[in-house]
Amino acid sequence: MRRTPLVGLFAGLALALTACGSGDGGSTTAADGELTGRGPITLVSGKDRSGNMQKMVAGWNAAHPKEPVRIIELPDEPNDQRQQLIQNATTKSDAYTVLSLDVVWTAEFAANRWLTELPKDKLDTSKLLPATVKTGEYRGRLFAMPVNSDAGLLYYRTDLLKKAGIDEPPTTWAQMWEACDKVRALPEGEDVDCYLTEVGKTEGLTVSAAEAVNSAGGVFFDASGQPAVNTPQARAGMDFLVNAIKDGRMPRAALTLDGEGGRRHFQSGKLLFHRQWPYQYELANADDGSSKVAGKFAVAPIPGPNGPGAANLGGHNYAISAFAKNKATALDFIKYMTDPAQQKADSLATSKAPTVAALYDDPELIEKYPYLPALKEAIQKAQSRPVVVRYGDVTAAIQSAFYDALGGKTPPDRALTDLQSKLAGLATP
Predict the structure, then answer these.
(1) What is the CATH number of domain 153-312+387-424?
(2) Mean pLDDT of 197-220
(3) pTM, 2 dp
């Protein structure tokens, strides 16, 4: 497949998108609600393992030498990213300008006045998937612009399933365990782990817990905002994860792995089914020797107890720090990074899911990522983790309860009862 050189494409996009705002390079500080000031800014994000973010920023910098963007990389783990962002905000530091936020952080950051409201009349959200736009809003106001989306997918080894006589991926938990037993009966599969989802005591565990609970018909908070985890549905979701480890379906080592550890395990060829985000697709298909499963896997909707499960809505949005300088430059940079052509180029390079709805029907993208139409449907149907102002406390409580149950420290019934009590004091008024 022939591609346009990325840096050249990005530079051209930057010129086209921001010709009206080249600025004079003056560095000024604006009041929280004002988008004024032009000059150097920073983009604060998790680690860029693809290298493509730097190429995108290079395109902007080539077109805006007086308004350069410098990337500040945060740790891999979302919990650590959030803590560093909060530390910067609570000190009212202007070191961070454009923030890459997990979609569930908007309410917390906006409620604490750590973000600058974005002007809806200057950012076109009409072309985006509606589910992604909601993640950037708080009380009807836009505080973050969706740049990429996510929904959990089931990665599965097509070569091993085929040898076991299985033509289709599982749609239920029981089908997944049955397929695993058949693969493990093969000489090629006796040392293969059956299933992995993030269950270490990180944000990934909150995602896995939410998908298990939601797939079983449960919720953490009901429609009125009150906790509702002490239910048979939530117990069924917790039991799925607990029994996966207890019965040897999921390796106990999963309790210490983060998302990148899980990715490496899948790419080593020692894992049959892996719940993971779309970003893994490009990395697992790399032909540079880093992946032993290149060309040997496919993706499908995650399974549930009675059919396809409820994927968790993930992704990242770009926001502007309330304490930043050069917010006019920051707004133009966000427009540049979230433009449809830019999102397509990034998806082709990294397999990240775009937020522009039309890109899921783009022939070039579908040729490379055949699962895109299914992913679009999954995103539209995906359920969010709890959207609450005290998100940090809520996710910590969920992680603690599920981790203790998975590790055998606390019986599931007691874990859910305790979690119900903790969440009662954290519900958003």
Answers:
(1) 3.40.190.10
(2) 96
(3) 0.83
